[in-house]
Amino acid sequence: MPPQSSRSVLLWVPPDAQAQGLLDTLASSGAEVLTAGPGAQGLSGGRSLTGAASRGAALEAARATAKGEVMVLVDLAQPYGAGQIDAAARLVERDEAEVATARRGELPLGERALAQLARRVTDVEVQDPLPGLWAVRTSVLREPSLSSEGAEVDVELLVKLAAQRYRFGEVPVDVVVRTRPPAELWSLSRRLVAYATTLNDTDNSHEGYNTLARMEAGAPNYNTWLGERFNAHAGRRVLEIGAGIGTITSLLAKGREQVTALEVDEFYVKRLKNRFRGMPHVKPYLSDVAIADWQALRKEHFDTIVLSNVLEHIPDDAGAVRRFAQVLEPGGRVLILVPALPVLFGALDEAVGHFRRYTPKMLRDVLEPNGFTVERLEWMNLLGIPGWLVNGRLLGRRAMPPLQLRLYDQLAPYLARAESKVSLPVGMSLFCVARLG
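Above: the chain's sequence. Below: its structure in token form.
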């Protein structure tokens, strides 16, 4: 096995685990080995985290003192070996992910149900999110605030790293899967449900973040629909204003020469950088529209500017449009999706920072006096009106219930086909294509 001096490995050793041979192999490869757990007593070699009586305490001690650039967390309740630990660590070392998990083979029913629940709650694109073997970039592992003590710390870590939009990867491993005890499966499942409903999963107070994340995870078909509308009119070099967590950015990025994702909030820019690391043509850019360096942006030769539910967040929308005209190439286009119908304005709009909802005339009056010719202006999403009206105006909710989102999302492909064939008389949104000049 090649030298692994840039790695730290935390072995959590249950009472019946045989860990000495694994510890010796890891130590001989140059890895820093830390041990904890009831079965760690009597092991020779490595660094024992004495006093760490729980999984959570062991992780806290390890991430505070680990010397390696990559840290591998191993629960030896599953019989993992040195080769599997090496494979997970290499995925992170090759910069293919910040978090790498093992993908065990055929899972027993309880483990399979837990994995499905974890994927649903976190929206990570790995099949086995809680396998007991993780490799994580150490700097990333040190970021989230963790409070769990027992095995639930794995759930807390998973949820919080997923919320930061770090890249997850997985490596297949050949291991005899040991099912967790029923009480542990139940405890982990309860904690996942709690994060899906009541607990804060983001270590932040950004109310709008939870709405954006819920919209992305709960409405993939709807987001694909929006992406298709934008992609049908976007050019090769795109400036996206107000990229948020990157939902539309990810749909625009495919096959384009450059996508610059402008976002005013450093909280979101950090997540954009995490999400699009390894995609150099996607460039997160921190700035307010009002103070952006438009002269520098002009040199990027953008042929398209995209605003997906963003213009309504800008106090001086007309001033912003004038700046867009300065940065676009001649004949370039601005593609705009905005919430429509001022009568729908309510608590949902307030929660995500809307200043207004538009009528067709309001949108034309912002664009046409400031250098743009409206080529297309269409209503979208007729069936979204009742849900927004009831939740935001009548019930005063500040976030859409997840179940409603998922039910609506099942209808999105049919709505997309229907609305492509007819001209709607009204809708919850307006989609606009406007050309400079």
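The chain is about 40% helix and 20% strand.
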